[in-house]
Amino acid sequence: MFWSNALVIVVLAGAAFILSRQRAIAVVEGNLGNLHSRPGYHGLYAALWTFLVGTLVLIVLAGLLSIWTDRVMFDALPEDSQKLEHIQQVQLIEDAKALAQNEIVSTANNARTAEIRAELAKVYRSWKSVQAWLVPIGSIGMALAALSFALGQVRPRFRARNQSEWVIQGLLLASAGLAILTTLGIVLSLIGETMKFFSHVPIYKFLFGTHWSPLSGVFEGKINPDSVGAIPLFTGTLLITLIAMLVAVPVGLMAAIYLSDYASATTRAWAKPLLELLAGIPTVVYGFFAVVTLAPLIRGAGESLGLSVASESALAAGMVMGIMIIPFISSLSDDVINAVPQSLRDGSYGLGATKAETLTRVVLPAALPGIVSAVLLGMSRAIGETMIVVMAAGQGANLTWNPLAAVTTVTVQIVALISGDTEADTAAGPAFALGFTLFCITLIFNVIALRIVQKYRQKYD
After folding, report:
1. pLDDT band for position 82 (50/70/90)?
2. Mean pLDDT of all residues in 73-96
3. Could you write out the three-class secondary structure of 2-41?
4. Which architecture, in CATH terms, is 225-456?
5. What SS3 state is found at 228?
6. How far apart are CA 424 and CA 49, in angstroms?
7. How is the chain split into domains, by residue range?
8. 274, exposed or middle or buried, with CB in 10 Å at 0-12, 13-18, 19+?
9. Collapsing DSSP states into helix, strand and coil, what is residue 212?
10. Are 374 and 332 in contact (CB under 8 A)?
11. Do 309 and 302 contact (CB within 8 A), yes or no?
């Protein structure tokens, strides 16, 4: 229903463009020189007003009615259900919604639960029927009102172009503000849940503890402060990221240098797309490759040298992750190196420098900020990777710098905690604390990289 209403609003916006454009031509009797703005701008102005007003009313009405329906269903719960836990009440309501829409629901525990579901399903159907006519009438009606208003604005001296540009500028500003507000919302939610977690667990035990077993107190419904030491997780994350970057940075940077300054146009035409194809491979495929192919090779090579290699190791996960990151670094570095002005190369060659000297002393220093950005992007990709680590490195929180041992990362543990069936205080608290700490570490890395770029970057006229 929502998308059908949105489609009607889009059609009305198109009709508004045509009608307003024709009206602008008609008011000057075809003499376009008497118009301040071209007819197309009058049409754009009307289309923008129609689409924006209709879409805004549609989103607001649909959202408010959905919230109100949930509120009514909570109020409709019988007295014997008011004593249930909130999560159980939510489950009842969700089952009632599924029942009202003829979807598959879980089997009721008893006859009373089935009766409550049926009653709630009736409430849901009644409010959905109200929403079914109120949302289209409200959104389409307001879109038509906006269309009528825009048509009334069509006059010879009306500044339709300026008004349209102001509306578009407002949209761009709103988009930028939405991105900023989203970031702030994420950070504030992390801070709030993290502070709640640290009200039960001393921060020093979390940051400097060496034992990670956050679900050890799940049956008591509380968190054991001595079992949430995150040092093993951050050690594993840094170890796997370091291995990945040792693979990706040299290979990716050398590939970018070759493609930009040494490869012929024919070689570049097929080599670069083939290299970038690695970025499109799903991470689960990389995980299978690590488990099925690379891990047995590493284990066999280690055993032949008398080394003890775990079936799941940080080395296997890091190497495969490095292969996955290569196209990110090579493609971005190649674009940055190609963006260095050819005049700098020609000047260096004119002074007698070789191609290698030109690259190391002129091109790479000029491209340093972009290369650092590419490396940071690859590092962020490695820190946030989960599937490869789960499949190739395991989930054991081991405090070790041995690349041949099984380790885990912060993101793997966050997923394991959030996706479990444990209480919120026991699972979500450590997960949010891990997320916020990882956010702070990433921010520190970005600040350090920015300082490095500002110190060593070279500017050219």
Report:
1. low
2. 74
3. HHHHHHHHHHHHHHHHHHHHHHHHHHCCCCHHHCCCCHHH
4. Orthogonal Bundle (1.10)
5. strand
6. 45
7. 2-170, 225-456
8. exposed
9. strand
10. yes
11. yes
